[in-house]
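Shape matters. Shown next:

___
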Amino acid sequence: MKTDHDLRVPLGHWCAGCSCAGLGGRPSRRLFGAALLAGGAAAAWPALARDGVDVGPPSGFSRLVSADQIEQAATQQYAQLRQQAAQKGALAPDGNPQVLRLRAIAKRIIPYTYEWNERARQWRWEVNVIGSKQINAFCMPGGKIAFYYGILEQLQLSDDEVAMVMGHEMTHALREHARERMGKTAATRGAIEIGAALFGLGNGGRYLADMGGQLLTLKFGREDESEADLVGLELAARAGYDPHAGVTLWQKMAAANKGAPPQWMSTHPSGPTRIRDLESNIPKVEGLYQRAERPAQVFAPPPRAAARPASVQEE
């Protein structure tokens, strides 16, 4: 597999601050109706908690756009990304050791996702590796996962650390953070367009049709990131991966940030606060890890580029 440094896609799925315009300060009159609708939807959803891991109900804003349509848009966008990578010779083949590794880890985690989102039972999960030096990874709505080769090679991620990344990204999809962000964006367009969006009509219909492109640039808020950290730890621990790897993962990210900040860090800032939060959450899931069956096979990270012969193009 050739690594393609120029294959740069602004995925924006490892994110920090909310960039939703119009949601701060005093709400406008046309936003007020949308907020009432969203609040009513939130009240209808129970809080989700499992073995002490409590994240509360999903945002009511999620109800302002269709889950089916967002997942369909994500499927289409993911297929385009795969095609783009394949055309550049940067889509790892099914037999690539890192593809086999990631799919084995995902296979262990996926059965534990269903209680967090019943829709996940019907998702057609996919896991692929894109040959790029970028330090990045994502999971789109509907379970479409991709890791960039750079995050595996440059950070020399262990299986436990890969599981932390994967669990985090899966949580964004399971908790429908993209759907929530789109709902908030729709809300700023006013109640008239929201009504159209709900029924697939008028300007709202055009908004939903453009969802695929938006999925590449959405940014998640601080609460979304904290939620993804916590539930990601829980998913990985249940699958038999050490939650302490969440700390070593972010320590590696902090070290990687000393040079040119990687794509991953531009949207997921690290720092002592995040690491402290992870450390405080580990006791909530450590019992799950202790009771979990350990993976039968342990995989190795890819060799660093400097350690490989120049003639090696694939693993």
Remarks:
- Residues 31-293 form one domain.
